[in-house]
Amino acid sequence: MQIKVPRGTYDILPPQSSKWHYLEKILRETAEVFGYREIRTPIFEHTELFERGVGESTDIVSKEMYTFADKSERSLTLRPEGTASCARALIEHSAYSGLLPVKWYYMGPMFRYDRPETGRYRQFHQFGVEAFGSLSPYMDAEVIILLVEILHRLGLKDYELHLNSVGCPKCRRAYREKLISHIKPVKDLLCPDCQGRYEKNPLRVLDCKNEACHAAIKGYPVLYDSLCDECREHYAEVRKALSDNQVSYIHDDNLVRGLDYYTNTAFEVHIPGIGAQSAVGGGGRYNGLVKACGGPDIGGVGFALGMERLLLALAEGEEEKAGIVDVFVAVMDRQYEDIGVKILTDLRRAGIKADKDYTGKSPKGQMKHADKLGVKMAILLGEDEVKNSFVTVRDMISKEQYQVGHRELIDFIKRHIKA
Ligand code: AMP
Fold first, then answer.
1. Which CATH number characterizes residue 363's domain?
2. CB-defined site of ligand 1, < 6 Å
3. Over the stretch 122-173, which tens digit does the pLDDT of each residue have?
4. Which member of 88, 241, 301, 310 has the greatest number of CB atoms within 10 A?
5. Residue ID of nearest Cα to ligand 1 atom 17
6. Residues 308 and 331 in one domain
7. Does pLDDT of 316 surpass 80?
8. Would residue 179 count as lying in a domain?
9. 231 alpha carbon – ligand 1 mean position (Å)
10. Is residue 209 part of a domain?
11. Annotated binding-site residue? 261
């Protein structure tokens, strides 16, 4: 029987991999312009990290983790998101005792056991940033401005940025009571999950994916009305900073984000055109996280973007158009193949993207091959060329041909590629 990729995973083959390179380049460049540097953490961690750092009542931890015991019976989990690992690394390397804020970005595969559909996979990729060690509302604004800048650089204009404040544990405590009293009379209409969790964590009901739950709790009290003065002021400052920097957003009372460690600012970006899974990214402030993971009491703010969903949103042709290589070495007579290989090596050592045929194609077949690779120039090597120590360079667009000596070849090609 043929073996196929596991459900919810997929291969990235060329030319699609070039789109990934393009996306990765924009993500890196933009993060670096904003002063973030890359962190790479392991793909699996101790299960406890996610239980503590993401929260046991969340869908991610309660239903979606790829957890396994290794040969020493340790419980390990393929990372479902990046923030908890960053917090762990921050603590483990005492990175918080250096220059603050610590500004990191990461990029890589994440794993969640969910029902696959367009835009939802079991292995998917996230790009994220985290800024630890600042409580300033301008820090929140910075990460949001960074996210919006990424979308602009990718040419994605039709997005919606939703923004809310989920307050601090103090104002949330008061709000919880109000929300529980609102939900209690209609609790029988909720999905089984929400019936089980509404008393412990009523905010999760607002975050439930089940439409019936939303219908049942219609008219519920909103968190914004319960914010304490400090949280209200923080939120107002974030909003002002966004407006001052021409970032438009929609205040969204329904946005609560399911993760336990979020405090204050929460945001989500949707691109309505990409289908049912329209959320391309989300994030917020998480002042309780580092402490919950065993570190000092310092705040953090960040976001994660779904890279597959960004690619779904990227219009055709947005990525850089380039041939696979720039130059093709065509050998007109097999006996000169060794010279062809030497020329090819010289070109490559000079940093020129070049290739040749390795399947014994005829001269005509080699030129077709060159066309398919999208080269700008072909170098033709036949009897005349070898006897007289030159090569014929053909411009594949203008079809003009030049006779070029071996010594001048690299310079000639470099000049021609630039022109
Ligand atoms: P979250 O950590 O759940 O806020 O996810 C952040 C972003 O990652 C989402 O907005 C999606 O773009 C992306 N994402 C989350 N889960 C998946 C998945 N199963 N497949 C593809 N992308 C995902």
1. 3.40.50.800
2. 81, 112, 114, 119-121, 124, 126, 279-282, 304, 306, 308-309
3. 999 999 999 999 999 999 999 999 999 999 999 999 999 999 999 998 888 8
4. 301
5. 120
6. no
7. no
8. no
9. 27
10. no
11. yes
Is 366 annotated for ligand binding? no
Q: Torsions phi, psi of 355, nearest 5?
A: -150, 175
Q: Which atom of ligand 1 is nearest to the CA of 281?
A: 10
Q: Please answer whether residues 81 and 304 qualify as being in contact, where contact means their C-beta atoms are separated by less than 8 angstroms.
A: yes
Please check whether residues 278 and 410 belong to one and the same domain: no
Within this chain, do residues 252 and 377 fall inside the same structural domain, yes or no?
no
Centroid of ligand 1 to alpha carbon of 124 (angstroms): 8
- What are the pLDDT digits (tens) for 257-310? 656 678 999 999 999 988 888 999 999 999 999 999 999 999 999 999 999 999
Q: Which domain holds residue 343?
A: 327-418
**pLDDT tens digit sequence for 170-199:** 888 888 889 999 999 998 988 988 888 888
Q: What is the model's pTM?
A: 0.91
The stretch 391-403 carries a mean pLDDT of 96
Query: Which of 60, 124, 166, 311 best tests ligand 1's pocket when mutated (most atoms within 8 Å of CB)?
Result: 124
Return the CATH number at 118. 3.30.930.10
Q: 177 in a domain, yes or no?
A: no
Residue where one domain finishes, among candidates 253, 281, 313: 313
Mean pLDDT confidence for 320-336: 88
Domain co-membership, 308 together with 338 = no
377 domain residue, yes or no: yes
Q: 306: CA distance to ligand 1 center in Å? A: 5
